């Protein structure tokens, strides 16, 4: 052999003794039973897996609030599920209106362009949402086959509240409506059928509190019909909806399913159903609102105004004189808490998704943030912030 085996330590030696508390923009901590499910391999075809697959579909219908037949798991990151939607619904000549509020909504436009679709981008001001007025103006100017929007723009922390109206406008103009709910699903309302949305995509690693790498997609009958009547073959074999339905609909072989990930997503969705969406939304609102108040009481500024602030990922302006990377490194070193940096904006971000929305996580994170700021020379009022957080959680 000309290539010698490398010196690679066992994985247990690479992992820290105590994992970091993941309070960034995802992945998020997972419940123990989801981790246990993720440790099991069974045959990807057969009676047990069929029951799991049927369960994932039924639980997805609940989480997405849809009666759509076509709910599928997708092997791959949420970006792959977004790409699956776009690649099946678009081809050269198809016209796509992409409402862009930041990095992730811009990614949808990039993907649609890559597929050869004719893409129009309507960009919101930085830190502001996409509005129904913007969508109405674009739809009045041109004809579109598909409109895309994110519910929560993780990159800057903006929520698009106008989705029901944008979906209504899209339908009135004969366009399908696609929503990226990657950082919001199961943290806030997105009733797919009631709002008239044709495609919803989410990942596992955020609000669902599952593992990264297995995602979910649901398509209305109208969206499915477009995908099945494509005038040209699908360029992506793995992301072909018709082929994927062999597995998700007919329990047949498409490719070898990522079995542990599908088991994990089943368990994560089951926990959502057990908690109920109403209770889960209330838990997220209560925790995020209390944390926002605690952050502000510490003397920090949230980037996005309350009216369109995304509750699931909070953007905090970097205090003057504090180095953002040094602050985050100190939080890791001194408190074993990890928060996120940003895509070009002068902010740090704290996630409020799934298991991150537990009081014990919030107290540890806010204390770590405040104390680390003090150690970096910024006079954060830690006691006041903690008191306001406690009061908010007591409400
Ligand atoms: C809103 C949104 N869309 C899409 C993605 C892409 O997800 P993934 O990294 O799993 O591809 C992310 C990831 O942060 C996101 O926040």
Detailed description of the structure:
By secondary structure, the chain is α/β, with parallel strands linked by helices. It has two domains: 32-275, Type I PLP-dependent aspartate aminotransferase-like (Major domain) (Aspartate Aminotransferase, domain 2); 276-394, Aspartate Aminotransferase, domain 1 (Alpha-Beta Complex), CATH 3.90.1150. Helix content is 43%, strand content 14%. It contains 14 helices and 13 strands. It has helices at 11-14, 32-37, 47-64, 78-89, 103-115, 132-141, 163-172, 221-228, 241-248, 259-275, 277-297, 324-335, 359-375, 382-394, and strands at 21-22, 70-75, 95-100, 118-123, 146-150, 152-153, 158-159, 176-180, 199-202, 214-219, 313-317, 337-338, 347-351. The strands form four sheets. A seven-stranded mixed β-sheet has the order 2-10-9-8-5-3-4, sandwiched between helices. Strand 3 (95-100), helix 5 and strand 4 form a beta-alpha-beta unit. The radius of gyration is 22 Å and the shape is globular. 50% of the residues are buried. The structure holds pyridoxal-5'-phosphate (PLP). The site of pyridoxal-5'-phosphate has 14 residues, from helix 4.
């Amino acid at each position: 052999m000309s290539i010698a085996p490398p010196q690679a330590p066992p994985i247990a030696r690479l992992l820290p003794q105590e994992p970091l508390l993941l309070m960034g923009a995802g992945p998020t901590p997972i419940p123990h039973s989801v981790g246990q499910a993720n440790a099991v391999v069974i045959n990807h075809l057969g009676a047990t897996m069929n029951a799991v697959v049927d369960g994932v579909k039924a639980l997805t219908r609940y989480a997405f609030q849809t009666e759509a037949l076509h709910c599928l798991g997708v092997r791959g990151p949420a970006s792959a599920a977004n790409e699956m939607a776009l690649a099946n619904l678009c081809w050269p000549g198809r016209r796509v209106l992409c409402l862009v509020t930041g990095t992730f909504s811009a990614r949808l436009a990039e993907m649609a362009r890559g597929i050869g679709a004719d893409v129009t981008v309507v960009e919101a001001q930085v830190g502001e949402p996409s509005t129904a007025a913007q969508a109405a103006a674009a739809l009045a100017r041109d004809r579109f086959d598909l409109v895309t929007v994110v519910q929560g723009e993780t990159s800057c922390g903006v929520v698009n509240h106008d989705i029901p109206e944008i979906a209504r406008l899209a339908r009135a103009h004969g366009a399908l409506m696609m929503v990226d709910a990657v950082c919001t699903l199961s943290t806030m309302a997105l009733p797919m059928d009631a709002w008239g949305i044709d495609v919803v995509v989410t990942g596992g690693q955020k609000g669902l509190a599952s593992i990264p790498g297995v995602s979910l997609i649901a398509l209305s009958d109208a969206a499915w019909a477009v995908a099945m009547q494509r005038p040209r073959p699908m360029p992506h074999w793995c992301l072909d909806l018709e082929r994927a339905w062999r597995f998700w609909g007919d329990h047949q072989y498409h490719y070898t399913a990522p079995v542990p990930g599908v088991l994990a997503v089943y368990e994560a969705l089951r926990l959502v159903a057990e908690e109920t969406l109403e209770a889960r939304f209330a838990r997220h609102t209560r925790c995020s609102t209390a944390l926002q108040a605690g952050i502000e009481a510490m003397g920090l500024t949230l980037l996005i105004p309350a009216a369109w602030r995304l509750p699931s990922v909070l953007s905090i302006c970097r205090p003057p004189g504090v180095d953002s990377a040094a602050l985050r490194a100190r939080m890791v070193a001194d408190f074993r808490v990890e928060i996120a940096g940003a895509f070009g904006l002068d902010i740090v971000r704290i996630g409020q998704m799934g298991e991150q929305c537990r009081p014990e996580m919030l107290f540890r994170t806010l204390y770590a943030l405040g104390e680390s700021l003090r150690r970096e020379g910024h006079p954060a009022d830690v006691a006041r912030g903690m008191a306001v957080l406690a009061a908010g959680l007591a409400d």
